[in-house]
Amino acid sequence: MKDLKEILAIRKIINDNLIHCITHKIAIENSVNAVLLLGAKAICAENPKEVADITSASKALSISLGNITDERLRSIFISSKTATQKNIPQIIDLVGIAISSYRYEACQKLLSENKFEVIKGNASEIKKLAGLKSHTNGIDAGDEDKANIENLENLIEISKNLSIKYNTCVLITGEIDILTDKDYTITISNGTKYLSLLTGTGCILSAMIAAFLSVTNAMHAALLALLILEISAEKIADKRIYTFRTKLFDKMAIIEDDEILENAKVRIYK
After folding, report:
1. Across-strand partners of 42?
2. pLDDT tens digit string along 199-256?
3. Can you give the three-state secondary structure of 55-86, one letter per residue?
4. Which of 66, 119, 142, 210 has the maximal Cβ count within 10 Å?
5. Which sequence ranges are marked TM in the entry (predicted)?
6. Is 23 annotated as a binding residue?
């Protein structure tokens, strides 16, 4: 892995890359604005008649299983197949697969047929993907599954096995983020509780990761997006949630590399 300072230099080379995001409708505006703040541009097409063309013209694809409809799911399969065929990097967010058999089965089919650079989910969703018992709380991770000192090694092992199985990077999001590929694991302990009170932050993060996937590898892309989002949130934490949202985007637009370096709480495991 590169030095964090070298990884941060990747921020400068996005150069208006087009990112295709198929995401939850309530998160579209915030997701595209987050991508724009990073220097890329997002389009959120979801009509099955056009998504192959849109994905083909894009540099990365972000897929969310949130708020699935039959038509959106058709579009997801078309877009993912197109991205796989054209070697366009893609991330999938496993929203709700621990509570919905429909989403879980769609997820299994998508992963069996296509290549994803990043598989993202909370601890309950990742455990479900691994075929383990999970304790989901709707679309959130159950308290028994969330990463802590006692279960951290077990969650790292689960994510490592999945990364090998799917030849991908696995990201478990939470108070402690776990980022794993076949070679090493990174934990990130930045962020604030206020992020969990703002709807759509998971979709925002996925879109940001996709933006960085357009110019770098999966581990670097996910780490960059996590640090920018979570350290920005730390710096402007405000219990007035709509004020927090506005300040968050303002901060993400101006946060400097030195500020990230100074505040990053990152640990690397071989």
Report:
1. 19
2. 899 999 999 999 999 999 999 999 999 999 999 999 998 888 889 999 999 999 999 9
3. HHCCCEEEEECCCCCHHHHHHHHHHHHHHHHC
4. 210
5. 194-213
6. no
